[in-house]
Amino acid sequence: MNLFRRVSDYLVDKNYRVTLSKKWVHIINYLEIVTLTDTRIVVHYDGGNSVILGRNLIVARMQDEEILIEGEILSIEV
Hints:
Elements: H1 2-11, E1 17-20, E2 24-28, E3 32-36, E4 40-45, E5 48-63, E6 66-77
Antiparallel strand pairs: 1-2, 2-6, 3-4, 4-5, 5-6
């Protein structure tokens, strides 16, 4: 039973995750996009908001609870 729960927890991961690069931000398990401009994107998640500041920001990919933001990333607050 313990093995089943561990596999299930892995497959149904609901933790908010942010992976950051100089040219992109990948976010998993967010709830909604609050603000979307080419210099500022605010993403709401269960524990608060993430604020991404940059230049020429775009949503490159978006699926269910996953988003890829590309552009010149200047800062991110989680």
